[in-house]
Amino acid sequence: MTAETGVPATAGRPSPVADRIGRTLMAVNAAATLVPFANGIFLMNSFSDDRLVTEAWRTFAYIVFAGLWAILAVAPRRQWGLWELLLFQKGAITVYCFVMWDKPDAMQTAFIDLFVVTTTAVAYVLCRGWISWRTGASESADGRRPATSTG
């Protein structure tokens, strides 16, 4: 039991199987995001000058998202707000694409982002991502809480 709360250190922790599944989903999202990044790099020279900077920004953003999912795969309960930030952005763009269904790329983007927002939400529940908001919820990458001094 912890000295501060009297609650066992494992209270609220996910089962090892649920944690592994959630982390795997985040790793899959990270790896899958590298595909559109590579495609964007490949297509970079084919864009017109008036679209080049926007497409470069979009392409390089894939690395940011891959990194965010990789961070969550490694340490899902140490990142305050990262889960929620990803869920908000991917949820917002998914809703936007469904509203703008008749626009170019809306259908493809809607279904891709619906997939990643769904897998992220499932992993959030499986890994109990909300635990990161609790005071003293930091833990090592292997899921163990750091030793605290009582002195």
Assembly state of the chains shown: single chain
Flag low-confidence runs: 1-9, 147-151
How far is the first residue's CA from the last residue's CA? Answer: 17 Å
> Helix content range of the residues, please?
55-70%
Strand content: under 5%
Total strand count, please? 0
Mean pLDDT: 86
Largest sheet: none
Secondary-structure-derived class: mainly alpha
Estimated radius of gyration: 19 Å
- Helix and strand string, N-terminal first? HHHH
Please state the overall shape, judged from the principal axes of the Cα atoms: elongated
Number of helices: 4
Note down, in words, how this protein is organized:
This protein has helices at residues 16-43, 49-74, 82-99, 106-127. The chain has 151 residues and is mostly helical.
Main features:
single chain; 151 residues; mainly alpha; 62% helix; disordered N terminus; disordered C terminus
